[in-house]
Amino acid sequence: MSADPRIAAAERALAEHGVRGASVEVEGHEREIAALRVPDAEWERMMGPDGVRIAGAVKAAGFRYVALDLADPEKDRLTQRRGETERTTGTRLP
Amino acid sequence: MIDEAKRERLRGILRECGSVVIGYSGGVDSVFLATVAVQVLGPASVLAVTGKSDSVASWMEDTAREVAGRFGIPWLEVETREMEDPRYAANPSNRCYFCKSELWTRLADVARARGLRTVLDGSNADDVGDHRPGAVAAAENAVRSPLLEAGLTKAEIRAWSRELGLPTWDQPAAPCLASRLPYGIAVTPQRLKEVERAELALRALGFRDFRVRHHGGVARLEVHPSELARVAEHRAAIHAAVLEAGFRRVLVDLQGYRRGALNEGLAAVQLVQLGSAA
After folding, report:
1. Rounded to 5 degrees, what are φ and ψ at B68?
2. CB A61 within 8 A of CB A26
C-alpha cells in the first residue's frame, strides 16, 4: 500500500509554519484525523493561537481534525527499553 | 438583562399548558424550565422526568436528582431503551431522532397515566439552526418548547437561572454521551462507559468545558481554548487517565472544543435544523 499523500503535504505545512521535528500519522475510522507528534519545545506554541493557524494549514492537506498526540516519546522509549530488559533478564524492574 | 415581555410570555405559555411533564436532563435549560413551571403552576401540576440509560452521564443524573430535591421539583426517573434499537446503535446522522422518539413516547405515556396535559422540552431560541433531528420526534409527539416559544436565549436563561439561585446557571452544555461518537461508529455501552470514565478523569483534573470524542480506540480531546494551555501542564496525567479509561491513543484537538464539531463532516443535505423540523 502506498503512503497517504496527505501525510507529506501535512508535514510540509508544519515545516512552513516553522514546526521542526514533527511527524504525522493518520487516525480515525474515516482516516479523518491528522495525529501529530511534535518535540516538547513546540508544545506551548501548539496549544495557543498559533496552533489554530497551524491546524488550518494541516487541514488543507485533506483532514477534518488535527490533533496532537499526548504520548511522551521519550517516556515511551524508556518503557520500551524497560520491557526489553525485563524480557532479556527475566527480572521485573520497579 | 432579560426582557420583561419574554418573562411574561414564558409564564403565559406555562399557564396555557395547564399541567406538564418536562423532559428533565439536569442541564441548564430543563432545570430552569422545571423551576419556573413549579413557580407558575405549583408542584402538583409539574413532573420532571429524567430518562435513564447508558448514554446519560452519571453526574448529570446526580445533578438532576439533587436540584429537584433542593428546589421542590417533583421528579421521576424512567428507563429508556434506545440502546436496544439497532437504528440508534448504528449511529447514523439522525441518531437523536431514535433516542428522542423513545424518550418522548415514554414521557407521553407518563403524562397520560398521571393526567398531566402537556409534555415540554427545554429547547431555546439559540438552538434554532442547529442540527437537531430529535426535534422531529418532539414534533411527532406534540412536545412543546416554551423557552423557544418565548424567545429566550441561552444567555437569558443563564441570567434568570442565576437570579433564581440555580446551581446550573453556569454549567457548561452537556449533551448525552453518544454525542461523543462520530456518526458511523456504533454506540455501545462499553464505548459510552469509556467516554464517561475519561471525562470524569478530566473533570477531576479541573477541566470544565471539553469533550472526549471516541474515534474507535482513539480519544480526541476537545478542550475549550481558554483551558488548552493547561493541557500541556497536565499532559502526563491526562494521558495516563484516558488510557486507563480504555483508549489506546490520546490526542488533543488543536482547534479546541467547539459545539457540533462532529457535524463538520456532514453534508448540508444530512442536517436537520430546529425550526425546519415540523
Report:
1. -60, -45
2. no
A54 in Cβ contact with A46 (< 8 Å): yes
- In a domain, residue A74? The reply is yes
CATH code for position A61? 3.30.300.20
Residue with cell 488548552: B228
Q: Is residue A31 part of a domain?
A: yes
Is-contact A53 A17, C-beta < 8 A?
A: yes
Enumerate residues 1 to 60 of chain A having a beta carbon within 8 A of any beta carbon in chain B. 27-30, 32-33, 35-36, 43-44, 46-48, 51-52, 54-55
How far B237 CA sits from the closest chain A CA (Å)?
A: 10
Amino acid identity, residue A77? Answer: R
Query: Least CA distance to B238: which residue of chain A?
Result: A70
Predicted pLDDT at A75: 65
The answer to whether residue A94 is domain-embedded is: no
Which domain does A31 fall in, by range? Answer: 5-89
Q: So what's the pLDDT on residue B5?
A: 95
pLDDT single digits (tens) B1-27? 788 999 999 999 999 999 999 999 999
A 10 A CB-CB count for B235 gives 19
Q: d(Cα A38, Cα B223) in Å, to the nearest integer?
A: 19
| Mean pLDDT confidence for A17-45 | 94
CB B50, CB B61: distance < 8 Å: yes
Say what the pTM is: 0.83
Confidence at residue A93, expressed as pLDDT on a 0 to 100 scale: 53
A62 in a domain, yes or no?
A: yes
Report the domain count for chain A. 1
Please give the ipTM for the structure prediction.
Answer: 0.83
Choose among B185, B242, B253: nearest Cβ to A65. B253
Dihedral-angle region of residue A21 (phi above 0 means left; psi in -120 to 50 means alpha; beta otherwise) = left
A chain contacts of residue B239, beta-carbon cutoff 8 Å: 70-72
